[in-house]
């Protein structure tokens, strides 16, 4: 035992290798390997008559993805939803995260952290189906609006083109609410972590130099929260792009990327198109990250 | 002329703790004023109340004769150099310095010009485009100073500004700060727990202990005539005799007194007492070498451990007297400083 300890102490690279080789093997083969296999599949195509996968590299599947209006619609619809959900999460999370990181102490702080994480301890499916009940035409939300005498407001919201529908549970508005609820913790936690790291003296220095609270927020708090917002938005953005359960349980019948992948690889048996669809979120995230980088989101890291 | 800063029976209470306990003082315009004390003595809370980060539980804070007790920091003509410098990590050095004018609506061109001048003043003209993280501790300190001075405050508050610097740099900065203050003629309020720093720079020093000011005086007076046992120990590292010890050493009706270590001589136990001196026997605990002098720690037979600062020349004469040796400490009667309170510290 002692000689073994000495052996590793004197050869730190062996020690590192012992630590890293198993996870790297796992990561390399299972994780990256399957991702690469997926990417590779997207360069195959399908024979329209035999429904067999043609194992020859081609861009035909991608051509199909970007030229067929129905497929483009799916991508635009999903990306729009992902952007809207990310923006809403950021706006709702900022005051909560600010309070958790800067003002709450002791028990109140613990309560908030547990409160934010608590929903993640229950089954995802249970929450989605519960939301369908809440949002239903005779559901508690509609009931609450009518009790407050605000049924007109709800009807007006549901009468809006594109996002409206016969009820919340069968409209994009309702789907948006469920998405925001589901991914909010993924925005709050990184944002709060970023704000926790801002020393109180920076805010005092800003006030000391003559900045009013709104100026301090704009010039100091927000720029220093940006790395947290960027991290959180990568979560909310990518989770919305890839999800297929929420769009199939709640909301209008239009397809989302995740549902397309599910349908294409399952019932339709078009593995190449499913693979091509699953490449779309990866590309969108890269685009998003490079835009965020361009705006200096990671400068403070 | 109004006092630059005035505290009128200011108290700050946190739960059961009176962090600042009915403190009153006035700081003259253009004065270099130090607030000295151990951590938790209330000095930093006083500074925060001048800056406006904290409000008194009772009492009034006046700046230039105007009651600012409930005025927020951004409406006070006071600026602060923070202990951790509090430089904005996402801005360049120049943007940091230009921040004050920026939030006051000064145009980009004008504030950049002002910021460059301030950086020249602190000898950092070449570093404007860097980020704070790329600077050394001493350079960050100067940026913090430039940023605080750009608004031309009437009062500059410095919260342990040299605490994070090494000894040599600290001494250089002490001289620079003092000359900068003379040049600009603004009031400096300097918080520190280092009595050397306070004594070497300040015009007057307020010694804080347990939320109160024990003594407010010029450095020389503080050192030569400490009013209380706490000041004697904290400022001069003096030996303190409380009422009981004083009675044993110097007669039944002796008052508590302090005697500085450099006024105490070490002698062999059997040597006679010099004229007009008091001697006390004891045994040597330790001899610490400090260069020009050595500090002898002696446990008096009367109880306390006292120290004597002995020059190298003297120490050579005391060969044979080491740790454990029996000696006596002697001091001239006239060098003993009477204290207003007993030994309680």
Care to describe what's here?
The complex is a heterodimer of chains A (301) and B (345). With 301 residues, chain A is mainly alpha-helical. In chain A, 75% of the residues lie in helices and 1% in strands. Chain A has 14 helices and 2 strands, in the order H-H-E-E-H-H-H-H-H-H-H-H-H-H-H-H. Chain A has a two-stranded antiparallel sheet with strand order 1-2. The radius of gyration of chain A is 24 Å and the shape is globular. Chain B contains 11 helices and 18 strands. Chain B has helices at residues 43-51, 93-97, 99-103, 108-121, 137-149, 167-184, 195-201, 219-224, 229-236, 243-250, 312-317, and strands at residues 5-14, 17-27, 32-36, 58-63, 66-67, 78-81, 155-159, 187-192, 204-209, 212-217, 239-241, 257-259, 265-268, 277-289, 293-300, 305-311, 326-332, 337-338. In chain B, a hairpin with a 2-residue loop joins strand 9 and strand 10 (212-217). The longest helix of chain B is centred in the middle third of the chain and has 18 residues, at 167-184. Chain B starts with a strand and ends in a 7-residue tail after the last strand. The A-B interface holds A 199, 201-202, 204-212, 215, 219-220, 223-224, 299-300 and B 51-53, 72-74, 78-80, 82-84, 86-90, 99-100, 102-104, 147-148, 151.
